Amino acid sequence: MSDAPYDFTIETLGPCKVKSPIQLSNVEGDFIANYVSDDDYVRYRLDAYIDQVVGPCKQSELLEKAGPRENIFFNPSHVHAAIVTCGGLCPGLNDVIRALVRCLWHRYGVRRITGIRFGFKGLLPEYGFETLPLTPELVDDCHKTGGSILGTSRGGGDRVVEIADAIEKLNLNMVFIIGGDGTQRGSLEIAEEIEKRGLKISVVGIPKTVDNDLSFIQKSFGFDTAVVKAAESVAAAHMEAHSQINGIGLVKLMGRESGFIATHTAIASHEANFVLIPEVPFELDGPKGFLHYLEDRLRKRHHAVIVVAEGAGQDLLEGEGGTDDSGNKKLADIGVFLRDKMAAYFKSIGMHINLKYIDPSYQIRSAPAAPIDSIYCERLGNNAVHAAMCGKTKLIIGLVHNKFVHLPIKVVTHKRNYVDPEGSLWRDCLDATSQPILMVNDKEAFLRNSLNRSKAKK
Amino acid sequence: MSDAPYDFTIETLGPCKVKSPIQLSNVEGDFIANYVSDDDYVRYRLDAYIDQVVGPCKQSELLEKAGPRENIFFNPSHVHAAIVTCGGLCPGLNDVIRALVRCLWHRYGVRRITGIRFGFKGLLPEYGFETLPLTPELVDDCHKTGGSILGTSRGGGDRVVEIADAIEKLNLNMVFIIGGDGTQRGSLEIAEEIEKRGLKISVVGIPKTVDNDLSFIQKSFGFDTAVVKAAESVAAAHMEAHSQINGIGLVKLMGRESGFIATHTAIASHEANFVLIPEVPFELDGPKGFLHYLEDRLRKRHHAVIVVAEGAGQDLLEGEGGTDDSGNKKLADIGVFLRDKMAAYFKSIGMHINLKYIDPSYQIRSAPAAPIDSIYCERLGNNAVHAAMCGKTKLIIGLVHNKFVHLPIKVVTHKRNYVDPEGSLWRDCLDATSQPILMVNDKEAFLRNSLNRSKAKK
Amino acid sequence: MSDAPYDFTIETLGPCKVKSPIQLSNVEGDFIANYVSDDDYVRYRLDAYIDQVVGPCKQSELLEKAGPRENIFFNPSHVHAAIVTCGGLCPGLNDVIRALVRCLWHRYGVRRITGIRFGFKGLLPEYGFETLPLTPELVDDCHKTGGSILGTSRGGGDRVVEIADAIEKLNLNMVFIIGGDGTQRGSLEIAEEIEKRGLKISVVGIPKTVDNDLSFIQKSFGFDTAVVKAAESVAAAHMEAHSQINGIGLVKLMGRESGFIATHTAIASHEANFVLIPEVPFELDGPKGFLHYLEDRLRKRHHAVIVVAEGAGQDLLEGEGGTDDSGNKKLADIGVFLRDKMAAYFKSIGMHINLKYIDPSYQIRSAPAAPIDSIYCERLGNNAVHAAMCGKTKLIIGLVHNKFVHLPIKVVTHKRNYVDPEGSLWRDCLDATSQPILMVNDKEAFLRNSLNRSKAKK
Amino acid sequence: MSDAPYDFTIETLGPCKVKSPIQLSNVEGDFIANYVSDDDYVRYRLDAYIDQVVGPCKQSELLEKAGPRENIFFNPSHVHAAIVTCGGLCPGLNDVIRALVRCLWHRYGVRRITGIRFGFKGLLPEYGFETLPLTPELVDDCHKTGGSILGTSRGGGDRVVEIADAIEKLNLNMVFIIGGDGTQRGSLEIAEEIEKRGLKISVVGIPKTVDNDLSFIQKSFGFDTAVVKAAESVAAAHMEAHSQINGIGLVKLMGRESGFIATHTAIASHEANFVLIPEVPFELDGPKGFLHYLEDRLRKRHHAVIVVAEGAGQDLLEGEGGTDDSGNKKLADIGVFLRDKMAAYFKSIGMHINLKYIDPSYQIRSAPAAPIDSIYCERLGNNAVHAAMCGKTKLIIGLVHNKFVHLPIKVVTHKRNYVDPEGSLWRDCLDATSQPILMVNDKEAFLRNSLNRSKAKK
User: Fold this and answer.
1) D373 to chain A nearest CA, in Å?
2) Beta D247-253 vs D303-309: how paired, if at all?
3) Is residue B437 scored above 90 in pLDDT?
4) Does D422 touch chain C (CB under 8 A)?
5) Parallel, antiparallel or unpaired: strands D80-85 and D112-115
């Protein structure tokens, strides 16, 4: 990765002059958890070269460690906090909500915590949703079910002025916004609008993307759970394919821009023969196209399992359908498209197939978090509260190199995380599937174009 | 952590002069996975201070990246590889075996792969176990079941000469040893004995500890699966405790030296009220002892769930029972001890309790790997093969800062990984349980002793 | 139900003159399992009226008990048995295959057991499938995975002469046919063709219908597993619906003619608000149509979960698509139809909804059997072998009043099993959903028509 | 079975003169569920002989069908109902509570429903437990968790006068008692005490026994769930045994008097090599004792899995420990006993074994109900309410020949249900394990004694 330097400096609302009530210590050896200092940083860059001398570390190149500080910005008894969940469902939403509420209430003694219903729309007057007062009792068991107890919706984040109005009217001091890329871009604009009005309100994001496509953070919450559930669908496809004459199991998995779920699932299950992801273009027709390789596989092994990420092969689809409420480009349905193309192809060559198409999307998104995700969500939530209490703002909580850190929203929403087609993850996936490295007919031309495209992007 | 500097240099059997057959590339943009260079390093230390100048990086302070090299040491057609699994069961053993076999066979074309039965004992003549020839067909579905298809056993790793004899007799070029702390110490001695004999044999370890107590590596395989299963036991204990008059659910979890499973499980499930781990001593009796706090909880809430790591409170137990076959100190059974102490205490104060004791150990250890662990095992196995083919030896494959790296066995077995009682993990666990920070009567004296103990250790 | 009397007499190939090798006993109290006598019958009719005198029981009105007989028809050392699985996947197929093989092999000493590949097509020359010799080793772990290790396909059962030719050519003495309604009708014709040729070949069916729509038998294998899996989909739909503004979760479940899966799933999960099954017609439009009731529910509760059996509301769909390979009428897709109708309706009234459509079909059909189904399959298989060894033919093994019995194929395929809209199962389902009893506008007219239709059927 | 005739007549509090509010119908063809008539009966005896003439059916020999009646005894608006759960946990308790509350509230309009806390102890003054008012809201999601939301305890059912006092004081009209054998015997005595006082109070039992040892009913709720969970433990034992040198997995399952769970689990999993149940005595020592057969198995196959029901082999254990709070004889622990005996035996013959003992008891009892059990519980609860509303009393709701019926408590508690060692279930279990039919040394003497014992019983 040849990243340009990022500015990781975190903004704050002002100096921290309130003594934290959470009763940790700064003494080593007293068995009391320690406060984190604002001087604790983590390097972002891990790569190193022998004999290299590294110049003086600038703050802007280092990541601030998350965690409770000895001095905080807000007086807990004055705090009114709000929580909102935006975008599609993702395993672990309730775990995060629960952690936020419990940490605010038990650790800091905050008693006014307000749940915003159904995403940003819960702050827009025309919907008329009432807010939901949150207490530890109310959230006690919510992590055992999927979904979001607050409700969620797409979009609305661009109506910055109205949302800032609502936040001001509610007299909030801190807003926790759980949502993806688009949502966090909205968060930033809202924070800027608030700042413009001279209000001291922390805006802290908890990044949510089941696709795991946020850059900088090592893994997004809910991702592990998604892979667990996706592996069940691939197992089903495998069973169907194995039990039929020329059985084909086609599973469409989430992954609008990045094929992480598809790739991980294929490695975990070892039952997919083809994985199609957005990062690796492919052609359908011709002697080196996907359909031909699939035919080949069927002739040799009589069954095949294909995993396709929803964002794969978008260049193959003509029609497009605008954008959804979150402003995301609507993808044409590659799953249905592939299904129909395969049916047509094998009909055209007179080969009988048994094609089963599985689209488990909502069953994955709505699942309760697996324990590993629950732990992650709990810790994200706690650290988000610690950050907000210190008046830090316009940041998200992330896990980088296994450390919880503060990341500026501006930096995080700047680029996406992709499966590197030449990296070790995709290499291990190809080993698991035995599929061809590239399914294109004129490889030379393809690589030339690919290079040009990537230049044009920069 | 104030670690002394470690020497991370990896030993090799000699220069790599064979062209790798795995057909990766060094070209960026050709969609072909790249070789890893021996000059690719990862920093071990992440902590950073502003304006700090870092002197020239020495190789010994950097971690070598794992992965396939362009040039390798062994000629694949001459390779005879062996795989052995040692110690107790751990979810993912079969996944690692499977990855080793498939990578050797499909990537490098190695055709002689031998499974050693039942740990190091499979190499000792008096047991008379035959070896098991391994092929991709044989291991194809083995990852779907728990256990080890090779069988495993404790101990035997100290019989260095006989094991080296057996390895020599089998004409092996590389030995993959999957096992824990004690096992890897044995691996090192075996590798040294082999070296003394002038043999060119790679010894590569894959670290296995369900307790997650190996230092340097960020997480051991099987750990996530263990937490998933352990959380089921805590849920059962919670149900029992809730449904009875003064119901107490006591769950003993694995964790001889480190309480990671107990701590993670408590955070994941949020249903434990007390977590007892080796890292945090506690007293049973007296007004600030565990039993009193438990009584308190029962009087207020009428039920309680306790999670105890098997290595917790060992100072409270008199009798000890020597060592097991692996040379590990045998722990007295804290679960049964606590159960009996609680029963006696509440009888003595005339309080009726309903105590249910759950010890899920084998149900956890024998579980098949959860998908996340399957992926991890697959990648560990692949990287172990790449290292061995390059003639690297006396190393284990580890995951550090989310990168697969080579770690010298000598360094890894040097110290253990502990839950830091003053770190964020334990802090989040205390938040999840609401238990007292310390359950000791004379805190001053305790802390003085604790300080002395920790000084004495150094 | 006012059933006409059925003739339950079982046909046999001839007198049983061979002493069974299975070494059971006829002595009570010797702890050795007892043979079943051909005089052991079970009443089919359970209804009783006080003071009613029941005339002499005719054999034709009684059900013959399944189980091992002291004397059998075939000499086990001469037996060549074949097993074939037909139609769609169903949890438990492999369990049945496994039980057949093990009982033939271990209990009776049969050594020639042949698996027919991919349904009846495996017996048709143009497909050219080789048969698969079956042994206990080969089937040992097959019950742990879903699907059918033999493969399956639809149709072909009407090519009676060719199939009989193939059976004759293979020198089979007994054929075990695992399949549904249509398959068993084929089995009967094949058995008759065989009989016409003067061959002594037992044809024994194991009834397979995941829909549970075979009459006489109390439950078909795989049904319980299907409900377990279906309940997971309903839970997902519920989570999605709850977490969205006017969230609607629509789940299509299997059930071509009968709504058993939908009904049981709704009672089990208690999360469905509407269950639509083939047995209870409904209208979409009008003030008492489904859409109006759904709108009502949304206005009051803001979310709704709908479970629809695939055969529901077929009268509402215009286009039809002929028949599938099994000769089953192809159903138009009620799930997609309803989804589109709902979208159009709520658009037309300007009400924003969030509709998530879940079709878990293949994930249900391909699941491995839950333990309860495994037990059932095991016992079906054993009893099928016992029946075939006695030369009984043209029968299926069924569970009636919790007893395993022999049922003539002719009788079983004569009618289907339906959810009785006025019985206790549907009553309990309505209690679980709180949906209206009938969603039709002109109830009087509807009931008149309904009455006429049911008259016409008779 | 040569049962003496039972009197199945159900007692009632008086004539039913109140029109039921539940709005069913008696018209066939109107799509409205039908009332059940008091003249609807089901035969208990299914066995039939050809040409047998059956004399006039007496009411006392027939089972009354459960379900809603057109006329009921109680005026719903006057009803005060109570629910109590007794004895150990069992999957499905909350499902039954939920169904009772919902049917009372929604179907009949009853508004006073009281939960008794912690079993009969909740009615005894010295415990001072407050009652819990129950509403549909409160029970809405309770079926998703295991345990009992009311709490449960053993014993207390013999304190008939005090319990009747408490019932009288609460002004109850109907009491639903969920509990086992001992509990229902208590229910009967309580009902008789109430009757003696001239009070019109329905006492309706819902039989609960995870062991499935209640006679007459075909299966108790929670049993299927128990088998599902038990199969997981056997799978773990199998993995451990397979992966060790002379690995032995020993699993203790529930089953005080009857081995149904052990037997079903062994058939479902096919991984047990020995199943030991109370119904089939065995000897440990000698050439035909269990230990010898086990040694044999280890010498041949090197691993073994043993499933033992807690009530098995009680004659082998000397010490006994009185009775528990429910008045059940306390069993000595056969699991620990066997574990120690095996260890000693193999030590004595110098054979190294690896023995893993798994006791999953509470993890099974506390599990939430599997969907099939949820359905069963729902229907048991509904039918219990229908019975109570009609003033029927001293009965339990049972499932017999797949019909829900009323059974007099007196009859049901009269004998237990056992695994018949000569029946088809045990036969299929022996086929699954391949264990010897009898593990006794002097078979002749054993059978003589066995015969005498069984005579003495009669």
Assistant:
1) 21
2) parallel
3) yes
4) yes
5) parallel
Active site residues of B: 211
Residue B386 and residue B350 share a domain: no
CATH code where residue C265 lies: 3.40.50.460
- Note the pLDDT of residue C458: 46
For residue A344, tell me if it sits in a domain.
yes
Instruction: Give dist(CA B227, CA C288) in Å, integer.
Output: 52
Cα distance between the two ends of chain A: 14
Provide the shortest C-alpha distance from residue D4 to chain B (in Å). Answer: 40
Q: Is B87 annotated as a binding residue?
A: no
Same domain? B439 vs B378: no
Q: What is the CA radius of gyration of chain D?
A: 24
Low pLDDT (below 50) residues in chain C: 1-2, 458
Residue B231 in this model has a pLDDT that exceeds 60: yes
> What pLDDT is stored for residue C319 in this prediction?
59
Same domain for A173 and A125? yes
CA–CA separation, B189 and B32 (whole Å)? 39
pLDDT of residue A448: 85
Q: Do B245 and D118 touch (CB under 8 A)?
A: yes
Residue B366: list chain D partners with CB under 8 A. Answer: 235-237, 239-240, 243
Name all chains with 3 or more CB-CB pairs below 8 Å to chain B.
A, D
Output the known binding site of D.
Answer: 88, 154-155, 180-183, 209-211, 254-256, 310, 362-365
Total structural domains within chain C: 2
Is there a domain that residue A6 lies in? no
Please check whether residues B162 and B292 belong to one and the same domain.
no
* Ligand-binding site membership of B181 (annotated): yes
Indicate whether A285 pLDDT > 70.
yes
- Residue D210 · residue D261 · CB < 8 Å: yes
> What 8-state DSSP symbol labels residue D308?
E
pLDDT at B258 over 70: yes
Whether residues D153 and B245 touch (CB distance < 8 A) is answered with: yes
Rounded to two decimals, the pTM is 0.94
Q: Is C243 on the interface with A (CB under 8 A)?
A: yes
Contacts with D, C 307-346, CB within 8 Å? none
- Core vs surface per residue B228-257: b (16+ CB within 10 A) or e: bbbbbbbbbbbbbbbbbbbbbbbbbbbbbb
Q: CA–CA separation, D170 vs C14, rounded Å?
A: 70
Residues A159 and A21 in one domain: yes
Chain A residues closer than 8 Å to C153 by CB = 244-245, 354
Residue D144 in contact with partner chain A when CB distance is under 8 A? yes
pLDDT at residue B458, as a whole number: 46
Instruction: For residue B268, give both structure tokens.
Output: 């994941």
Pick the range with the lowest mean pLDDT from A287-291, C434-438, C443-447, D157-161: C443-447
Do A332 and A359 belong together in one domain? yes
Q: Domain range holding D292?
A: 226-364+420-457
Chain C, nearest residue to A230 by Cα: C363
Do D351 and D290 belong to one domain?
yes
CB contact under 8 A, B268 and A454: no
Amino acid at B190: I
Neighbours of B195 (CB within 10 A): 17
Same domain membership, residue A211 and residue A76:
yes
What value of ipTM does the predicted structure carry?
A: 0.93
Structural domain includes residue A2: no
Give the CA angle between residues B60, B61, B66 to the nearest 5°. Answer: 80
Asked if the structure places residue D5 within a domain, the reply is no
List phi, psi (to 5°) of C148.
-130, 125
CA distance C412 to chain A (A): 27
- CATH number of the domain that D123 lies in? 3.40.50.450
pLDDT tens, D179-207? 999 999 999 999 999 999 999 999 999 99
> C43 vs D46: CB contact, 8 Å cut-off?
yes
By CA distance, what is A145's nearest residue in D? D144
B-chain CB neighbours of A60 within 8 Å are: none
C42 is in an annotated binding site: no
The residue annotated as part of the active site, out of D7, D158, D165, D211, is D211
